[in-house]
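We emphasize that the prediction below concerns an isolated chain of 198 residues; any contacts that depend on oligomerization or on bound cofactors are therefore not represented. The input was used exactly as deposited, without trimming of termini.
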Amino acid sequence: MVATKAEIRAIVRASRARRPAAARDEARDALTGALTQLCSSVDANSIAAFLPTDTEPPIDGFLASAIAQGVAVLIPISQPDGSLKWTHLGPETAVIAGELGVPEPVVFDPTTLLGPEALASADVILLPAAAVDARGMRLGWGKGFYDRALAELPPSDAGVRPQTFAVVFDDEVVDELPHESHDKEVDGVVTPSGIRRF
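Result of the prediction step, given as a token string:
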């Protein structure tokens, strides 16, 4: 019997909280390599990503490397209406805990925030997730911010569209996840072990 979304999220949260610091450091190095390989394979000049919390897959090393190599990095800012807006991440960008308790860049002028068109122009979108299944179904954290953002992208048959990849730990790729009509599949998943495309 497939566990409920809430049960899976609780299991993942507990597992991530127990993950030793040394294992996280190993994962950071491995993810930096895998994500660099992914972006190189599609010749990405612009990516949308997320700033990880203390327990999420540590992609911060990759983000710093991408910025140093001249890749434009977009980071989301959550909005009260449940949508996401975007801002560029730089090497000196200050970060605070946002409305949802997740790290977000400090934005002094909200009028400079970018809308859905910025996300649509990215070459690759890296998504946080609790888990991903063998069909490419992504389980988020229940607020729906990313599902709404992905729903605003052009359809896959409309020409150029960003490739979407969830980033999770290896043990968070499972056979099957519960899903609903609003849940969005991803094109692939990146774990410390490497890249898997669906």
